[in-house]
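so my prof wants the structure for this chain in the tokens format not the other one, which i didnt know existed until like an hour ago. anyway here's the sequence
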Amino acid sequence: MFDDFMTRATVAGLGVAIAAAPLGSFVVWRRMAYFGDATAHAAILGVALALALEISVFAGALAVALAMALIVSGLSQRGYAMDTLLGVLAHSALAFGLVAVSFLAGVRMDLMAYLFGDILAVSRMDLVVIWAGGGLVAALIAWRWSPLLTATLNDDLAYASGIDPKREQLILTLCLAITVAVAIKVVGILLISALLIIPAAAARPLAKTPEEMALMATGIGTLAVILGLQGALIFDTPAGPSIVCAAAICFALISATRLLQRR
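here's what i got, hopefully its the right format
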């Protein structure tokens, strides 16, 4: 079954969607869109370091993405303006990563594949890594769902319930770094945040509870993967951007439907 490249691509996309959609709900609730961008952009530096040191690209991207997420979390607690800080770090990390790639003499690297994804080229080992990482993220969110939700609502409420908001923030940070690392092959560094945010944003007006929103976001993300890959196959377009376009179309249709219902 996995000899077919479209089958591998679909399974890889579903693995990322299962992790990204519920995590994206927390990104939307906490207004962490730029935080996700900064973490994703830092991953290109991790890719360059991994190639230079001849280690796993997943390990390099995960290490640098996690380091960036921790740096942002630490600096934000020291009084730095979050929007300015994220803007500086996100673009700086991307620029340093691209410069680092230019110094990799003798290493063949398809930069476009890392920036926009190369889901049609995933191997069986890539599937193992994607599903292991995606499964870990989904398990962490399911395990910590109630504490994460309480900490998202209000820090004081979390403390009153015996929950440490900083610990829950650290768990979200770890989940975000893992998702970024496994999604590089699917949608690329520049589009990872879109796969996190758009399905969750599309599900938000339809859901009545947080659990419904996470489940609906997963469904929309899954639908976007399937439609995007089919569209890429039919129209011969890049697969990663096509998946994001499919998610954006779902968001636009849902938003338009809700607007017509209100009128």
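also thought this was worth mentioning. The CA atoms of residues 208 and 216 lie 11 Å apart.
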